[in-house]
Design goal:
The chain has 245 residues and is an alpha+beta fold. The chain folds into 2 domains: 63 residues, Arc Repressor Mutant, subunit A (Orthogonal Bundle), CATH 1.10.10.10; 160 residues, Chorismate lyase-like (Chorismate lyase, 3-Layer(aba) Sandwich). It is built from 8 helices and 11 strands. Helix 1 crosses helix 3. The termini are far apart.
Length: 245
């Protein structure tokens, strides 16, 4: 199927095909954010009934790719918007994006065991000589950088996932649970706005000083034991995070 045509024999429901076509046009900047997407226009374009058109627009609205103006219609939201709900399990963003059809990719540094910085040892209550698994991850959606994360995981010395696993599967936390039975129970987050440093700007493909959303997370395993730490820098205009209080 081409990027702008429906394939009636693919087995993929029509509303999903329409949604994917429109999503790609929105994230690529092809769709005009000032021009509403009307049912009449989409009916004429795709030659289908109203039901798949309405379902596609409903899904795009829920996922943050379009928004509705009362009495004016449905408009594209510029950029690869990612609307992350609060109930995603720790380390599950990659799988969440994959399930949404956003085709995430990762560039991961080689995991290594290191003594973490003093500030981090204090936050986690670690002894001075305890080494943690450390790696960085730059996650992109549709080829556009979205999240630049610095990750430390408290784990047995034998736990050392490969770069290939982290890039293809996404979650070191899931692997830790499968191999050692260490289950994450909860996570605590702190979020703030900040300006991109030169290094962050280079990684995320933005101008130095651009607004970023910083989210610092401490992971806890069963029993409230600190299990890891992550600082993730997000493109502020493309990422929305839900909190539960």
């Amino acid at each position: 199927m081409s990027t702008g045509e429906l394939d009636p024999v693919s087995g993929v429901p029509m509303y999903k095909q329409i949604k994917e076509i429109l999503r790609r046009e929105i994230t690529s900047g092809t769709a005009d954010p000032k021009t509403p997407m009307t049912e009449a226009q989409l009916l004429e374009r795709f030659g289908v009934s109203r039901a798949p058109i309405r379902q596609a627009l409903s899904d795009l609205t829920t996922e943050g790719f379009v928004y509705r103006k009362q009495g004016k219609g449905t408009f594209p939201v510029v950029g690869a918007r990612v609307d992350r709900p609060a109930d995603i399990r720790p380390g599950g963003l990659f799988q969440f994006l994959s399930a949404k059809g956003l085709k995430p990719t990762s560039v991961v540094s080689t995991p290594e065991r290191v003594i973490p910085p003093a500030r981090l040892r204090s936050r986690l209550g670690l002894p001075e000589d305890e080494r943690l698994l450390h790696f960085t991850r730059l996650m992109s959606v549709d080829g556009e950088p979205l999240v630049d994360a610095d990750v430390y995981i408290r784990s047995p010395e034998g736990f050392l996932p490969t770069v290939e696993y982290l890039q293809e599967q996404g979650s070191a936390m899931d692997l830790l649970e499968r191999e050692y039975g260490i289950t994450l129970d909860r996570a605590e987050h702190e979020a703030w706005a900040t300006a991109a440093t030169a290094e962050q700007a280079s990684s995320l493909g933005v101008a130095e000083g651009s607004p970023l959303l910083a989210i610092e997370t401490i992971f806890f395993s069963t029993g409230g034991v600190p299990a890891g730490w992550r600082l993730a820098m997000h493109q502020a205009e493309e990422f929305k995070y839900h909190f539960v209080t």
